[in-house]
Amino acid sequence: MTVRRTLIALVGLGSLAALSGCSENEAAPAPPVRPVLSMVVAPHGAEAARFTGTIQPRFSRDLGFRVLGRVDSRLVDVGQTVKAGQLLASLDPTTLSLAVRQLEAELAKTEAQLVYATATRDRKKALVAHKVASQADLDTAEESLAGANAAVTRGRAALDKAQEQLSYTRLLSETDGIVTAANAEVGQTVNAGETVFTVAQADIREAMVDVPDEMAQAFKVGDRFTTSLQVEPGIQAEGRVREIAPQADAATRTRRIRITLDAPPPTFRIGTTVVASPQQIARTSIELPRSALLKADDRTFVWVVDETAMTVSRRPVEVAAEAGETIRITSGVDAGTRIVTAGVNSLTDGQKIKIDPEMVP
User: Could you tell me if 225 and 241 are in contact, meaning their C-beta atoms sit under 8 angstroms apart?
Assistant: First the structure.
């Protein structure tokens, strides 16, 4: 009996030892290797970009008559060069000329009344001095003289106004330039302030181009551009960005950029089609798909791939701008770094990953 119990005990101890050895030798299951989509980031290359646009004036003036009237003559046409002070068109002056003549006659009458009132006052003053007339008579003469003076002043002001109105029947160019629009013909009645001509100043010309929104964000005021004629690329002019539209056009998703040209050649006429290319773009930003960003703790991160160890690590980045599904970052990763572009919410630091060779860009 004692021997049997001893054998059972030994067998039990052996079984426990065997079980203990199995549990010690079994390692915890390793986390699965995660296949991921990734990309190698690089600055968005647009140094060779070419944008088509047109030559436009920086300053343009809409000219019109200041009075209502019928166009009597039109002396210039679209495309014609004009000088400052040159007569462009005129209205029929008959009505305003008659008003001027009437006021001239009224002024002559009031001036004659002023002469009579002055002489009357002088006589009354002399009679009062000799005690032949009363002081009341002199006061009445002084009052009449003051009224005559006021009437002359009023008449001169009315005549000046009428003469100024008459001058408004002549439309003069305010600057040297080129007529780009003509909106009235001889015999047509125009309202006061209605645009009759548009004159563009040709001394300062600009290239106006429309740039895709995601590319326009890389430009800033002052960037240098080289502009050339579309029909003759050898004829070029340089310029700087003066203005970038703050918002993209809702239909075309482009922003309008105006480039002020430095001493453009005469062939850069207003309305000419040109091609503008950026000379140099300082690109400190990198474009990423929106799906590559991980937001946590009020910060933005990306998963960077260690291609030697085939692991991922979280790295903070700074977002500069967002345009649709594209995000532009200014710091956090360098060009040439591989980052994960999908499934960023289910990764952990140091996790092993696998990159599908067919999906590697």
Answer: yes
Pick the CATH number of 34-45+285-359 from 3.90.470.20, 2.40.420.20, 2.30.110.10, 1.10.3470.10: 2.40.420.20
Euclidean distance between CA atoms 229 and 31, whole angstroms: 62
Kindly list the averaged pLDDT for each block of 10 residues, start to end, along the chain of length 361.
45 47 51 76 62 92 94 94 94 94 95 94 90 88 94 95 95 92 94 94 91 84 92 91 92 93 90 88 66 84 86 84 70 80 82 67 48
Q: Which two tokens stand for residue 162?
A: 């009428």
Amino acid (one-letter) located at 27 = A
- What is the per-residue pLDDT for 314? 87
Distance in angstroms (rounded) separating the CA atoms of residues 52 and 227:
9
- The answer to whether the CB of 204 falls within 8 A of the CB of 57 is yes
Please give the span between the terminal C-alpha atoms of the chain, in angstroms, as a whole number. Answer: 77
What pLDDT score was predicted for residue 11? 47
Token pair listed for 269: 């006429």
pLDDT of residue 322: 65
Quickly list DSSP for 327-339.
Answer: EEEEES--TT-EE
